Amino acid sequence: MLRNRFALCVVLLAATAAAQDTVPVSIGERQLFLDDHGISKIDGLQRTLHQPEKRGAVIKPNQPWETTLQTRCAPVWDEQAKRYKLWLITSTPAPGVAGTTYAESVDGVNWTKPILRQWKYQDSLENNFVAVEPDSAWPANAMENVVYDPDDADPQRRFKGFLGAFGRQPIVSPDGIHWNKLDVPVLPSSDESNLSYDRQSRSFIATLKTSGPFGRSHGIWTSKDFQTWTNTGVLIHADEEDQRLAKANILKRLADDQFQQPRYNDPADYNADIYNIGVFRYEGLYVAMPAVYHATGKIPIGNTDGFHLVQLRSSRNLQTWQHVGDRKTFIGPSPVKGGAFDLTQLLPPSAPIVRDDELWFYYTGIKYRAEPAQPESGGIGAICLAVLRRDGFVSLDAGDEPGTLLTKPFVLAGTTLHVNVDARAGELGVTVLGEDGQAVAVAEPVTGNQLHTALRWKSGNLNSVKGKSVSLQLSLRKAQLYSFWSE
């Protein structure tokens, strides 16, 4: 029945495929389903947003100078040193004393904190604080964002970052430990920002905190050389729908005692804004991870109490953005029982790191926002890890009834097609259509959990259509499709 329906769909949709404009697809670039780009028609398939699997806190406050650890970076792999490097915003037991510390790891799970002797804490240099200027103090000594640029011809500039918690001074380093300021203007930002490097376009993407219609918002700035920056004019902010959902999310949390409850609660103060947002290039699109802050009530001295939920947005041009998964939570809080840190405040990294067939997200998890009457021991905030299947943000799913996807035409750059699909309970069928809408190749059905399998052909092959416009007709039954690509 599946194959008969599949053949019928090919006949009915062939004319549609031939009429579509060709979509540019680079060789090896995975085609995901966070939006409708490259899709001509979907029938009987459902989009599903997937959450990464939490692995718990991997960098905890375990030194005398640490109470809360946070990060606004992704670990970078230093090929020369053969280890991951990560920079942490570190609060100390001393009131008003904070800075940036450094940690490193060979496997990304077990982290060490080498003694750097760069900055004095309580008259001692025996710590892992990083200091651009040894005599600086918080907030001037904050180093919130660091990226690695392997394409810079000058090895002294391959690590790049921002200095300062208010305003962002571009800085560079040969190793991520010893830093120098660049003689360039300071970028405007209040106390939150994020930074990533888009290696495909060789450009840097910064999100800088400003104000918006409902509070915290973030502008997007870009640079090709890390010296001259352009404000794109884009402002990522919360909207009226976020306010409506915030009330529902707050009430849901208040009714569930397995989660950390806010200390202050006043419906008059309920609000949603964008606390921080990481924007990164992933395959053919840009992905944003906004930490949506849900304010629950004013703190008598200070800010507001509340909590964060991390969502997803996507864009093809850094200009127009759309919500992914109907604003459902991508990374949310852990239950109170279990010893987790990510109970209340969750701040995203600048990007995940690709580890074989997985995406690793290192994010900030903090137990509370308004300090409880009896604070817990063992630290307040830590760096947590969550792991997602590669390309696993969104899948197209079919149940017992088959569903079909017809792509827009694209120029086939290679001679093999690969798919990332979970078909352990069913199967995936693929037919390649030529410019005339006729089938030029039919694949053997794909079964099992396949993260990067190359299609085998039951009839035809791709040799005759390499460099020509083709469309794909994909049919699923009891399967989840994450991506496809050509090589």
Describe this structure in words.
This protein is mainly beta. Helices cover 7% and strands 45% of the residues. It is built from 2 helices and 35 strands. The strands form 6 sheets. Strands 1, 2, 27, 28, 29, 30, 31, 32, 33, 34 and 35 form an 11-stranded antiparallel beta sheet that branches. A hairpin with a 6-residue loop joins strand 21 and strand 22. The radius of gyration is 24 Å and the shape is globular.
Percent range for β-strand residues = 35-45%
Low-confidence stretches are: 1-20
Distance between the termini: 31 Å
Query: How many β-strand stretches?
Result: 35
Class of secondary structure makeup: mainly beta
What helical percentage do the residues reach?
under 10%
The number of distinct helices, counting runs of at least 4 residues, comes to: 2
Shape: globular
Mean pLDDT: 94
Q: Main beta sheet, described?
A: 11 strands, antiparallel
What oligomeric state is this? single chain
Question: Radius of gyration, Cα only, in angstroms?
Answer: 24 Å
